[in-house]
Amino acid sequence: MDEPSLTLVEKSFTFEDCGGSQSLTVSIPEVLDPHYGMYVWPCAVVLSQYVWKTRSELQHKTVLEIAPQHIRRVMKSVCELQLGAGVSLSGVVAAKCGARVILSDSAELPLCLRNCRRSCDANHLPDVPVIGLTWGQVSPELLSLPPVDVILGSDVFYEPEDFEDVLVTVSFIVRKNPHAQLWTTYQERSADWSIDALLLKWDLKCINVPLETFDANKTHLAGSTLPGNHTVQMMIITKRVV
Length: 242
Ligand SMILES: C[S@@+](CC[C@H](N)C(=O)[O-])C[C@H]1O[C@@H](n2cnc3c(N)ncnc32)[C@H](O)[C@@H]1O
Prior knowledge:
single chain; seven-stranded mixed beta sheet; binds S-adenosylmethionine; alpha/beta
C-alpha cells in the first residue's frame, strides 16, 4: 500500500553528562498531524533522560544460565519493550545506549507503527522490531514476546478509560517476567485521576522517582523546551509480592 503523503519535521534531542564528557544526539521525525502518536510528548523527554542517566545498567547485565551439566555466566543486554511508543524517543535512546529494544504501538494504528519504524531508520537502528500491541488485549504478539527486563511507557496514562488496559498488559508481562519493571512518566492533567486502586487490583506497586535525582527537574532538557512547566512525574511499577 502506498504511504499517504505526510509532512515530516525532524527534531533533534541531545542528552549529555554534566561535564559534557559524553553525549548522544537522536533525530525523531514528527508528523504534522494532531493525532497523539505523531509527535514527541514532554513525558518522552523526561523518560529518555532517565534512560540516558541509567544507561550503564542497560548495556550489559550478568545472568546465570543453568544448563543440566554446567552453570555458566553470560552477558546479555537488557531487553526493553516500549508500549504506546508513538514516535519512540525513549525507545530509540535506549537502543542507542545498548539495550535490545522492541517498539510497540496499538495494532489498530498502523500510522503510529510506521512512525516507530521511521524513527528507527532515522537513527540507523534497522534491527529494532516494531510490533502491534494493543493495551488490554492478549494477542499472539503479546504471548510471543521474548523475556523482558524493562517496559518503557511515556505518557501512556493520558486517557482515564485506558488506564486499566495499560496495567492489564503490564501485569501480564510482569507475571511472566517477575523482575521486570515499568518505567513510566506521567503528565498531571487532573488531580482527580489516580491509578492506585488499579495497581492493587492487578498486583502491582509503584514508587515515585523524584525528577531531581536524574537531573530532569528542568524546563529545558536534551536541548528541547518540551518539558516546559508541565508537571511530569516518573514512576517505577513492579510486581507486588502478595
Ligand atoms: C500521548 S501519546 C505518547 C506517545 C509517546 N509515548 C510519547 O511520549 O511521545 C500515547 C500513545 O499511545 C498509543 N496508544 C493509544 N491507545 C493505545 C492502545 N489502546 N494500545 C496501544 N497503544 C495505544 C498512541 O498511538 C500514542 O502513540
